[in-house]
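Hey, why these numbers?
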Amino acid sequence: MFSVVLTLAVLMSLLMAAAWALQRATGSSGWIDTVWSAGVGIGGVVAVFLAAGDGWRRAVVLFLIVVWSLRLAGHIGMRTRGGGEDSRYAKLIAQWGKSAALRLFIFLQIQAVAAFVLVLAIYLAASNGHGFPRGVDGVAVMLCLGALAGEALSDAQLLQFRRTAQARTGVCETGLWRYSRHPNYFFEWLFWCGFPLLAIQEQALSWASVAAPVMMYWLLVHVSGIPPLEDHMLTSRGEKFRALQRRVNAFFPGPRKNEDTP
């Protein structure tokens, strides 16, 4: 077990070092999240092949993580190739000044730790020896597939909005974006909620898989997801985005509020 954990940890560290090198070579920080998404997928595939769980369970886990990684890495990669710079990284690099190279490398190694937590959850899910499917497995698979579909749909709706003239000064409130300011983040978190359901068994270590959705919620809602993105939107959209904040939930989808609702 220790050798597997060490292998996965080193792999994630090396992949994020490659993301750092790619950013330094191209000057485009958008490739960082592309490599991170692909890296979690690569680590997940390695984790499944190192696991010794039920064969059908391993196949399902492999399918889920490959589809997740290809979709997300492809989406971010196409956006980056189209010239879109990630405002979060651009702001950090500007703040770091002359020490940007070193501090970015350290920052990306912290991201490697986050990637390792996800890959560990994949390994634990694939290591579950119970025959597939149990009743809870069906719930997990439906949860993951629904989350994949929801995130893909919300990304497509945002892309369609960005192609309109309104996108230059307005905010997206079409489709799923009417009920959450960040539906893509919500569905991303929901996807990882499925892996503890696939992983948890009699062995106490299997409960470590719960760290994946807990960590993703904390990162998306409180650290690197919503806070820097909304700071950017407040700067670029001003009162229009403040009005959106008053009437639409930040993360969990819910009914829209009236403008005068406290």
Remarks:
- The CA atoms of residues 235 and 241 lie 9 Å apart.
- Residues 2-247 form one domain.
- The mean pLDDT is 91.
